[in-house]
Amino acid sequence: MLCNMRDMLARAGAEGYGIGFFNAVNVEMARAVIETAEELQAPVMVGTAEVLLPAMPLERVAEYLLPMAEKASVPVAVHFDHGLRFESCMEALKLGFTSVMYDCSAAPYGENLERVAEMVRICHAMDVTVEGELGHVGDNEGAGKLDNPSDYFTDPNMALDFVTRTGVDALAVAVGNAHGDYKFPPKLDFERIADIAGRTHTPLVLHGGSGLADLDFREAVRRGICKVNIFTDLDKAGKAGAEAGIRSGAKTLMELMPYEIDAMKAVVREKITLFGAAGRA
User: Fold this and answer.
1) What is the mean pLDDT of the chain?
2) SS3 for 203?
3) What backbone torsions phi and psi does residue 210 show, to the nearest 5 degrees?
4) Above pLDDT 90, what percent of the chain?
């Protein structure tokens, strides 16, 4: 069933588990996520991000994700992640996405606050939920890599002001996490997570979840993380599945699809179970 993330994350926070958000840039990825959630009777979030739109335009993503979510036997929120432009968030809103992340984290604090507050006013009028980001989650490599990530960690004092004045439904935090492949095991600031959660009483989001250790996930959820974003692990699993299919003699794209889906379902199953969401639908 199609839903927004407000009630989903509120229950996760109250009962101490996390919701997985998985980017799905094609139908095979979407099937892997939603079918596994149904098998595990778990709520789940699925969607795409602005940086992924070159792979699949937002309108095309909406065409397969929204009907699949509506028909699902478990709660599914369809989320537009890391919306960098007001216009792209508005497009997601018009297409029927049930939540958006308006990422203004690279802007000065006052501008971030003002722009996200405006997005919240618009989206709440349409019963769409909004995620913001305070601090800045960089990348593990490339143009988005931060020389000193700790300089961009979320300030607990500012977090309370931000959620109070914007009204966001969820807050993405920078606590030692990063997007993409980790070259070295990250060191998450669990005390900072707990401090922010205790001050804001708002569901917290951990971006850059692919590659973290199981113990890190469990501890992060225990300290206040309610939503964990996964893409790199899912993407790599699909590629590995296709390669396994080729080695097994698959000669067509149609023959490769089951290998890709099965490999990605294994990742989704592992994460949903690890986050404690199995059986929570």
Assistant:
1) 90
2) coil
3) -65, 130
4) 79
Write down the pLDDT at residue 188.
81
SS3 19: strand
Please state, as a whole number, how many other Cβ atoms lie within 10 Å of the Cβ of residue 132: 27
For residue 147, the model assigns a pLDDT of: 47
Q: Do the Cβ atoms of 250 and 256 come closer than 8 Å? A: yes
- Asked if 83 and 101 touch (Cβ cutoff 8 Å), the reply is yes
196 has pLDDT over 90: yes
Structure-token pair, residue 204: 């917290």
Domains and CATH numbers, the chain: 2-275 (3.20.20.70)
CA distance 118 to 225: 25
pLDDT at 148 over 60: no
161, pLDDT greater than 90: yes
Q: Please, what sign has the CA dihedral across residues 272, 30, 210, 116?
A: negative
CA 244, CA 272: separation in Å to the nearest integer?
Answer: 24
User: What is the residue whose two structure tokens read 């206040």?
Assistant: 224
Closest by Cα among 195, 188, 142 to 171: 195
- CA dist list (Å): 163 to 8, 167, 195: 18, 5, 14
pLDDT at 43 (0 to 100): 98
Q: Amino acid identity of 197? A: A
Q: Say how many C-beta atoms besides its own lie within 10 A of residue 106's C-beta.
A: 13
Q: What is the pLDDT of residue 186?
A: 65
Half-sphere CA count of 182, side-chain side, radius 13 A:
16
Quote the CA–CA distance of 273 and 245 in Å, as a whole number. Answer: 26
Q: Is the pLDDT score of 25 beyond 50?
A: yes
Average pLDDT over residues 250-265: 96
- The residues assigned a catalytic role are 81
Query: What 8-state DSSP symbol labels residue 226?
Result: E
